């Protein structure tokens, strides 16, 4: 058996931390005990606003007096910080993607320790029901389409996402990683993909990524993820054998399966709450969290393969599945 998590160290002070992680911890009755960030003044302001007792820019603040650590920094710092946490003998939960196109996730030794990646959609009631529907049914095609506006100005705190050296990629590593994870969670690792990435920010992150993934079962998935103008889209549709199941929007908790009535399975208001509850339970029980690091690495593998395919003019690239 593991130990019960009571006190958390938090690395980062951005939107995910302030809107999702800290409120979820408070709702679960757990204690955010320390907050780390490169800017000690911003860390102190965030800590004070959210009732976190300690803060600072020294990584030791993150590793002392806590039972586990949540890492929600720019992607380039995910693996170095996670390594420090694991070396300190602490469980660690890392924001997605693990490393994206930086491809550094293989450097983490998680043997015998609880370490996960925050692919929280695995816990959504509609996704769990989707897995049940796939028992005995393999679709022929999955269609994934995501689009939202994202055009940060020079002073926008999210501007780092446009620099692949910091973010591990563009829209594919950001919003796309969640949808890739769902494909891997539902169907396992594809054996081959083709990809085209384009419409890049000045620092190189793509605004548009189009992928086709192939599985040895014959399943094919077409994924289009984009930051751009036009109405928002978030569709996840499975077809095959005269059946169609659609989640649109993906996070609405509604499964359309004509001719049957829609199935309504609303998600929690804060999806990080069940994610953090699952991780605490995993530590206590000595089991793996809902998305262990090893499975988070597989998403990175797809992102890296997509970049290789694009660099080769969209030629097929094997992914190892």
Automatic annotation (TrEMBL):
Record carries keyword Oxidoreductase: yes
Stored Gene3D superfamilies: Dihydrodipicolinate Reductase, domain 2, NAD(P)-binding Rossmann-like Domain
Example of a GO MF term: oxidoreductase activity
SUPFAM superfamilies: Glyceraldehyde-3-phosphate dehydrogenase-like, C-terminal domain, NAD(P)-binding Rossmann-fold domains
Domain Gfo/Idh/MocA-like oxidoreductase N-terminal per the UniProt entry, residue ranges: 7-102
InterPro entries, alphabetized: Gfo/Idh/MocA-like_OxRdtase_N, Gfo/Idh/MocA_oxidrdct_glycsds, GFO_IDH_MocA-like_dom, NAD(P)-bd_dom_sf
Domain GFO/IDH/MocA-like oxidoreductase: 141-244
UniProt KW keywords: Oxidoreductase
Protein name: Oxidoreductase
Biological source species: Streptomyces venezuelae
């Amino acid at each position: 058996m593991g130990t019960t998590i009571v006190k958390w160290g938090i690395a980062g002070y951005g939107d995910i931390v302030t809107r999702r992680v800290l409120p979820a911890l408070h709702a679960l009755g757990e204690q955010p005990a320390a907050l780390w960030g490169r800017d000690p003044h911003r860390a102190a302001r965030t800590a004070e606003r959210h009732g976190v007792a300690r803060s600072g820019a020294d990584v030791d603040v993150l590793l002392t007096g806590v039972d586990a650590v949540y890492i929600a920094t720019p992607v380039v710092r995910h693996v170095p910080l996670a390594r420090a946490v694991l070396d300190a003998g602490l469980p660690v939960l890392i924001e997605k993607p693990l490393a994206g196109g930086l491809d550094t996730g293989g450097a983490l030794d998680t043997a015998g320790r609880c370490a996960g990646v925050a692919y929280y959609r695995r816990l959504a009631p509609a996704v769990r029901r989707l897995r049940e529907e796939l028992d005995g049914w393999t679709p022929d095609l999955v269609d994934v389409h995501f689009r939202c506006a994202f055009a940060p100005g020079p002073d926008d705190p999210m501007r780092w996402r446009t620099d692949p050296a910091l973010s591990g990629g563009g829209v594919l590593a950001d919003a796309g990683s969640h949808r890739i994870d769902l494909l891997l969670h539902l169907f396992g690792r594809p054996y081959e993909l083709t990809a085209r990435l384009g419409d890049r920010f000045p620092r190189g992150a793509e605004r548009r990524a189009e992928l086709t993934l192939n599985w040895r079962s014959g399943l094919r998935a077409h994924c289009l993820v984009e930051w751009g103008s036009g109405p928002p889209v978030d569709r996840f549709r499975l077809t095959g054998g005269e059946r169609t199941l659609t989640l649109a929007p993906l996070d609405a908790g509604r499964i359309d399966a004509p001719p049957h009535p829609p199935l309504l399975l609303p998600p929690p208001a804060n999806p990080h709450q069940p994610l953090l509850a699952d991780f605490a339970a995993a530590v206590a029980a000595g089991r793996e969290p809902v998305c262990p690091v090893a499975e988070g690495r597989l998403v990175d593998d797809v992102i890296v393969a997509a970049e290789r395919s694009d660099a080769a003019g969209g030629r097929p690239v094997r992914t190892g599945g």
